[in-house]
Structures are given as C-alpha cells and as structure tokens.
Amino acid sequence: CAGVDMGVPNTQWTGEIRHLDELNQDLQLEAAIWNKRIGVHGVQHQMDIAVDMLGRNSDEDAWVPLQTDLRHTRTVTCGQDSETCNRLTLVDELHIRYESYKFNVRFLNPTDYVGDVTFSFYYINHNYTLFELWWRFAFLVVTFIIVIVYMIQLRTVPFSEWTLEQKWGAVLLFALLAYNNPFYPLEILAAGWFPVFLNRLLYATFLVLILLFWLIMFDGIRREGQEISFKSFYLPKIILLGLIWLMGVVTFTWNQLKTLDDPAYDTSKDEPGFMFFAIVFLAATVVYVFWLIYAAIRAFNDLRNVPYLGIRVKFFLCRHPLPTLFYRLEAIHLGDLMRLCVRP
Length: 344
Description:
Elements: E1 4-5, E2 12-17, E3 27-35, E4 43-56, E5 64-78, E6 88-93, E7 100-107, E8 114-124, H1 126-153, H2 164-179, H3 184-189, H4 194-220, H5 230-261, H6 267-270, H7 274-301, H8 309-318, H9 321-337, E9 339-342
Antiparallel strand pairs: 1-8, 2-7, 3-6, 3-8, 4-5, 4-7, 8-9
Helix pairs in contact: 1-2, 2-4, 4-5, 4-7, 5-7
C-alpha cells in the first residue's frame, strides 16, 4: 500500500484497526514519508501534525472520542539518496481499552517534498504476551525457592561472618525476586499509572544493584579482612549509582505518565528538560564505567596476592550478574521482535 499523498493541503488520512485486546499490551501508529526530492538534496523540516483517536468495542457501538486534535511538532529528516524520510511515531497507546481504534491524521504544514505517506500499526503479539506472563511467573517461583534454600543454608552462619559474595548474593536474589514483579499482570490488564511505575521502579532498582555489585566486588573483594569505612567506601558508590537510578526512574516515569494522558507525546521532543536528565545520566554512566575499569584493573593486579581471588572474581562475574543481565536484555529484544506490523 503506497499510502496517501499528504503533500496536498488539508488532506486527512483515516485508518482503523480491529480485534485488539489487553494482551496486545500497546498500540503504536507510525508514518513513513516518501521523499519527492530523492537524488536532489536532503531535507529537514519541522512538521506540525494533528491526530484524532477514537475507540469502540463492537461494530454496533458508536465511536468514542478518546483524543481530539492532538498537535505536536516533529522533525522530518530526508536523506538525499533515501526514498523515505525518518519514521515518525504519531501515537503510542500504552493500554488497550477498546477492541477497535480509528485515527485521523493531518499534516498542517506540508511542503513539496512530502509524497505518499505509509501508515503502519504496531502491537505486541498476543501469544508472546501469554508466554511472557508464564515465563515471569516461572522465574518468580524459581527465584522464591532459591531464596528460601539460600537463607536456610546460611541460617547457622552469623551475618557478621558472611563473605562479601554471600551478602551480595542475598541482596541480588531479593532484588531479582522483586524484578520478576508478581504484580506485573496488572500493567497489562488494568489501566492506570501505578502498575507501570512499579514495574519501571523495580526494573531500574535491579539493574542499578547489579552495577553497584560489580563496583563493590572489584573494589572490595581484594580488601577483605581490612577495615572498610562506610563513608569513604560505600557512600560515594551509592551516591553515583543513586544518581543513575534517580535519572532513569524520573525519565521513565515522566514519559509513561505523559503518554498515558497524551498518546502522541514524545519526551525527547516535547519536553525541554529531557536533555538535562539525559546529560546527567550519560555523565554519571561515563564516570561509573571508568571507575569500574579502574577497580577491575586493581583487582586483577592483586590476583597473586589474595588467595582464591581469581576464582571468586571469575565465578561471580561470569556466572551470576552478567548472564542475568544478558538474558534480560535478550528478553527485551525478543519483545520488540514479537511486535506485529499492520498496514491499513
């Protein structure tokens, strides 16, 4: 489908999608603009776009206006040798409330480079959502069993005598239990901001605890047996990772809350303060990476001086947090692959 020639003033595109439910999780509407000036020169244009969104649960029902005349400005960039410009996300409906949706899209200030526009709907595969729910539940049960077994095995050892690995093993197990989030189905089945916020909060907390674990392990495992001051050893690390956690939680939460009210909202483009959070987050991440590299080099330099240090570092670096983080990132990537594309 070549789409609609939106270069003509006052042209409106109307599209409808049906047979959705809560298990499709979210619905996105994207637009790909065909470049009329291909081979001539590149184009960058601030496009004003208006969107209407309506919903209904059956063909017998009347369309319910959900959003009317949502207006946002998007930057359209067309390369000189590119047939299409950059894809624009026009709507991101985070919770499916109706069986059918209808959209009206208008380009308020089109120029002569705008040709046919291809509109596409994206939503999560119904079967993948069921798989994700059962997969999370299975991991939740397994993690709970491991936590119980772990605590039973260490019940006779005083906490003051636990090694650094044993203490962090317990912390990460409880963090993983929270990350698997027994309340996650509410994010899919119930509308509202709190389930989304809770899931993002637990996700960010788990990742930051893994990052904190790596830093403390490399910097502290070679100091075992020495007196470690909380003020000089733990506090700077907690402040740095706390800043990363705060920036991540605030950005994700703000974006989710604004998108719930305005499905056409895009934090990076519609929120002037977003750049501040992005710069602070990036700066703190760079500091963390260099600090971790420095601590790792110091730890590996001491491998010959501290008994079993090499075995302990390799075991906890390669067999616990790294694979866990890799599996989580792969799960996110798999979720993106399971998105279905429909062109009306």
